[in-house]
Amino acid sequence: MKHLLLLTLLAVATHTFAQDGRLPLDPKNSISYTDSGQPKLSKSELHQKVRKWVENKFGNAENAITSDDTQAGIILITSYIPVIHSNYQYVRFDLGVHYRDNLYEARITTLDGISPEHSPVRLSSKENDNITAKEQIIKTESNRKKRKEAETDLQNAKADNDGINTTLYNLLADLKSYINSATRE
């Protein structure tokens, strides 16, 4: 009985936390990844931690940081990160970090898929619409071969979005880990 209960809980937890192949959207229907934390650090300590993280993560803080307003407690970063995706090798993103004593909020927005084969492509809610359209095709397709092709297309589209999600959530987790770690010099 214990094992059955454990398996049921694991199945529910896995289903709850599994990514569904969609990119996160804010109320304005724009892609938005967010995270926040409450480290026991002053505003100036948070500022230094974020700058040091940018330097360690992207190599040159001066190139990655597009705005640094210590009075307002805002650092804006524009950079690239490698991504697992069938069409793009990198995603260019904007990351804003707002901070004050004992609190920070990070938000990633404005994503562009980057590939050497074509111009950058702005990623938007159309990525999620594409998944919904593929799901509808599967529901209505009666031809077995076409249905199988549509299922493969859907799996690939979800895997592409999950690759972007994983990369950007890992980036936010890396920032959180760095901020919460002991000072690195």
**Uncertain spans, ≥5 residues at pLDDT below 50?**
1-18
> Order of helices and strands, N to C?
HEHHEEEEEHH
Radius of gyration: 20 Å
Briefly note the structural class of the backbone: alpha+beta
Q: Please give the alpha-carbon distance between the first and last residues.
A: 52 Å
Indicate the percent of residues in helices.
40-55%
Q: Which oligomerization state do the chains in this entry correspond to?
A: single chain
Shape call: elongated
Largest sheet: 6 strands, antiparallel
The overall pLDDT, averaged over residues, is 88
- Strand content is 25-35%
Short description:
By secondary structure, the chain is α+β, with helices and mostly antiparallel strands.
Tell me what the structure shows.
With 185 residues, the protein is an alpha+beta fold. It contains five helices and six strands. It starts with a helix and ends in a 5-residue tail after the last helix.
Topology:
Layout: H1 2-17, E1 33-37, H2 43-58, H3 61-64, E2 65-69, E3 74-82, E4 90-100, E5 103-115, E6 118-122, H4 126-140, H5 144-180
Antiparallel strand pairs: 1-5, 2-3, 3-4, 4-5, 5-6
Write a concise keyword list for the protein shown above.
185 residues, 6 strands, 26% strand
